[in-house]
Design a protein that fits this description.
Layout: H1 2-26, H2 31-56, H3 58-76
Helix pairs in contact: 1-2
Length: 77
């Protein structure tokens, strides 16, 4: 159960980061409201990400880190 909730939070955090890109184009509001929503989405997504890492442990963190580094070296290395 802990692992499933951690994985849900991990993917949910990435989904929220993706939503940050669309907020200025979807929300029909003034700039202050858009800035507040963007900041709120970033804060919630970071919280979900760190909570997922706490639930999933160091091995999951190291696995994700190695995949990201491998991807980075393949694209930009």
């Amino acid at each position: 159960m802990k692992r499933r909730f951690g994985l849900f939070l991990f993917w949910f955090s990435w989904l929220l980061w993706g939503l940050v890109l669309f907020v200025p184009f979807v929300v029909d509001a003034d700039l202050e409201t858009i800035a507040m929503l963007t900041t709120l989405l970033i804060a919630i997504s970071e919280g979900c990400f760190w909570l997922s890492l706490l639930l999933l442990g160091k091995s999951f963190y190291l696995a994700v880190k190695s995949r990201v580094l491998q991807f980075w070296r393949q694209c930009f290395g």
